[in-house]
Amino acid sequence: MANPRRNSYSTSQSSDSSSFQFQTQSSSSLVLLKKPHAFPFLVLLLLLLAMAMAMAWVSLRLQYSSSGVRRQQLGQDGLGDEDSKANLVRFKSGSPSPIVKDNRGWLLDPVSLALHSGVKGGAVSCLRVHLGEIRHGGMRGNHRHYACNETFVIWGARTKFRLENKMVDRGYAEVTVEEDEVVVAASPSGTAHALVNVDASRSTFFLGCQDGMVNTNNSNTDFNVWKDL
Ligand SMILES: *[C@@H]1O[C@H](CO)[C@@H](O)[C@H](O)[C@H]1NC(C)=O
Ligand SMILES: *[C@@H]1O[C@H](CO)[C@@H](O)[C@H](O)[C@H]1NC(C)=O
């Protein structure tokens, strides 16, 4: 992802200098307009005006898209794209929310919810199930299973979810699950995944549903995939 700060900085620089050039050009053009053969200069003036408007438009577009990136980083909205790269859907744990049917709270079937929400490559049946906690500062996963697809449900605390994704430049997609959210994610066989509790105090809870046997001799899992976690 491009650095949004650097992006908007260079944009405002270039639009400043272009409007300065335009002002100098236009004042000299006004003097020239008083002369008899002003027509070519009028054309030049209009051309410059069109160029300045095009540059202002491009600069507005760039500022708009970099503010979109900033909103995503703050986790406020516009998350759809990053979430789909990380192969997950998020729901509010409080109502209104599609996973909250009445005032007892949320309830969901991870396999069918993943299938119906466009989360691809998860387990279609739960042959092995893990239910667990990740305390403040802890991490689970950071491994790659070759013998199963896995579907996750994550909730309870601010949690970083990283999923290997070859379509993303750095080789993985990463999103933050907020403490008031419930996430359904999938890690297809052969992709690495990691869950990191980044909350100030709360525990993350998760369920992992696997459709194949991960051998106890670990021959079909890579461990410690990412060194920066
Ligand atoms: C994982 O999912 C793929 C299809 O997405 C399927 O072919 C495969 O049998 C599933 N299970 C394992 C253990 O790979
Ligand atoms: C690991 O276990 C599987 C069966 O569970 C076996 O087929 C495989 O040969 C074992 N690998 C090693 C390296 O022992």
Automatic annotation (TrEMBL):
InterPro entries: RmlC-like_jellyroll, RmlC_Cupin_sf. Residues 1-20 are annotated as: Disordered. It comes from the Eukaryota. Gene3D superfamilies: Jelly Rolls (2.60.120.10). The keyword Cytoplasm does not apply. Keywords: Membrane, Transmembrane, Transmembrane helix. The chain crosses the membrane at residues 38-60. Residues 8-20 have a biased composition (Low complexity). This is Uncharacterized protein. The lineage of its organism: Eukaryota, Viridiplantae, Streptophyta, Embryophyta, Tracheophyta.
